[in-house]
Amino acid sequence: xxxxxxxxxxxxxxxxxxxxxxxxxxxxxxxxxxxxxxxxxxxxxxxxxxxxxxxxxxxxxxxxxxxxxxxxxxxxxxxxxxxxxxxxxxxxxxxxxxxxxxxxxxxxxxxxxxxxxxxxxxxxxxxxxxxxxxxxxxxxxxxxxxxxxxxxxxxxxxxxxxxxxxxxxxxxxxxxxxxxxxxxxxxxxxxxxxxxxxxxxxxxxxxxxxxxxxxxxxxxxxx
Length: 223
Description:
Elements: H1 6-27, E1 36-39, E2 60-65, H2 70-88, E3 94-101, H3 105-116, E4 124-129, H4 131-139, E5 154-158, E6 164-166, E7 181-182, H5 186-220
């Protein structure tokens, strides 16, 4: 038919169709994939500290375990610093918590100075604790793996309510369950962990937006 000219079809594909898609998505409620909760109520980080000054509550936290061999963790932390920390340092309530056993303070200070030579360290938090407490804390993640000399090659995402977040449909894991992100893999940090933290932040943004909209609606009807 003459009505469907090449020019009109091209205009529809370039302008009208994307606009329709945008309107559908923007009017829908929670039309995005949420980052799955894999373990509820992880023990708060404050429980293994004498000072109680650090907490998961109201923060998006990336947690890693340095272990007794701090030098072994150096390349992992450098990867985490470049691919995750620097991408989210300006985000509100973001923090990276690196946990290590008592007695390794001097080695950790050296590592902090190396990272700090080219990084603003204000959202890096280094926590030392008793090895038994670290193990108990890790066990609250409820994953089928154990620490090796208080250390672990993966980093974890803990949400504002103290829940462990991750994927249940990861194509690279046999059962699809991705609890942690391999710090030795730049690709996994960049392609998976960074994306998943973005999803979590968007989840909070969407919830905040819906909350404000509901408040406005209630005000409009005089409630």
